[in-house]
Amino acid sequence: MHKKKHWYDYLWIYTPFYLFLGFFNILFAWLGMIEFMIPLVIAVWKGNKFFCNRYCGRGQFFNLLGNKLKLSRQKRPPKFLSSLWFRYAFLIFFMTMFSFMIITTIQVFSQTKNLKEVVTVLWTFKLPWSFAYQGTLLSDGFAQFAFGMYSIMLTSSVLGFITMLLYRPRTWCAYCPMGTMTQTICKLKNKGDIDGIESERSFTATKINR
C-alpha cells in the first residue's frame, strides 16, 4: 500500500529549480532566504523542527537521489559528522562566512567596493558568473548579496551531494547549519520539557538513517 502523497512531498523541486534559475538571473538567488528564515520562524514560534522534518526541499531532494535513483552507497556516516563539536564548529564557520558576505554586500551598497560577479564554491573556487547578471535598476549591492547567497546555496548543495553519494541520502541533515540552529532554539524553547528535548536529540539519528 502506497503512502498518500501530500503537497509538501513535492518540495524537493525547489532545490534544482533554485539552482537552475541562478544560471539565468542571479537575482533569483534572493529566494534562498526562504530556507534561512522559515526554519527559524517555525522553531521560535512552534518550538519544533517541523521545517526539517517535513518542508525541507533539500533533504527531500537528497532522499530522492539517494533512495529512488540509488545514487547513495547507503553507508553509515562517520560519527563525527553528527557530533556536537563538529556541528557547532561548522555552524560557527558557516556564520563567519555569511558575515563576510554581508560585509562585502554593505561595502558594495556604500560604493567602497566594486561588484564581484563571481560565485564561490566551497569558499575557495571562484567561478565567473557575469552571464547571469544583466544589471538592475537598484543598487549593485542587491546583486552582490545574490552572488553571495547563490555561492552559499551551491556550496551547501555540493557538500550535501557528496555526503549523499558517500554515505546515506540525508547525511547533510546531520551537520546542516540551519538544522543545528533550529535544534538549539528548540532546546532552549522546550527547556524543562523532557519529551521535547528527547525528541530533538533523536532528530539527527533519525534523519541520517533514512
Descriptive overview:
This protein is mainly alpha-helical and 210 residues long. It has one domain. It contains ten helices and two strands; from the N terminus they run H-H-H-H-H-E-E-H-H-H-H-H. The protein has helices at 14-21, 33-46, 50-55, 57-68, 84-109, 140-166, 172-175, 177-189, 194-201, 203-208; strands at residues 118-121, 125-128. The longest helix has 27 residues, at 140-166.
Topology (elements, then pairings):
Blueprint: H1 14-21, H2 33-46, H3 50-55, H4 57-68, H5 84-109, E1 118-121, E2 125-128, H6 140-166, H7 172-175, H8 177-189, H9 194-201, H10 203-208
Antiparallel strand pairs: 1-2
Protein name: Membrane protein
Transmembrane segments: 20-45, 85-109, 147-167
Keywords: Membrane, Transmembrane, Transmembrane helix
Biggest β-sheet strands, sense, barrel: 2 strands, antiparallel
Count of individual beta strands: 2
Stretches where pLDDT is under 50 for at least 5 consecutive residues are 194-204
From the N-terminal CA to the C-terminal CA, the straight-line distance is 19 Å
Shape: globular
Strand content: under 5%
Name the strands of the widest sheet in spatial order: 1-2
Number of helices: 10
Q: Which structural class do you get from the secondary structure elements?
A: mainly alpha
> Into which percent range does the helicity of residues fall?
55-70%
Overall pLDDT = 91
How large, in whole angstroms, is the Cα Rg?
18 Å
Instruction: Kindly give the count of domains.
Output: 1
Write the element-wise H/E pattern from the N-terminal end onward: HHHHHEEHHHHH
Keywords: Membrane, Transmembrane, Transmembrane helix
Transmembrane segments: 20-45, 85-109, 147-167
Protein name: Membrane protein
